[in-house]
Model the fold of this input.
Amino acid sequence: QVQLVESGGGSVQAGGSLRLSCAVSGYTASNLYMGWFRQAPGKEREGVAGMNTGGGTYYADSVKGRFTISQDNAKNTMYLQMNTLKPEDTAMYYCAAARWVWYGYLSSKSYSYWGQGTQVTVSS
Done:
């Protein structure tokens, strides 16, 4: 059973940076399709970044150039480096994993495994 545990959320001022981590257990992360999603109060969950098993990366337009998804195979951990944060980035962030992606790397329908979430708050 795949288990995902996020960490690294917090409160920062606009323009600041945070790095989120997603520790994977029960499966080799490099053999999974991985993604980061976020959900703000009153809004639908949206895909932020995705990574395929070949290392290819995908980003939502709203975060391109600011966020970077990466993976450390030795630690079986995925990361989301978030730079130049904006107040509109405030949300609960979730990591997700799948053994195969059918609906696109930024669609929540593609992912079967989810972490519990970590809160990111960006103040202006």
Notes: The CA atoms of residues 30 and 73 lie 6 Å apart. The chain has no helices and eleven strands.
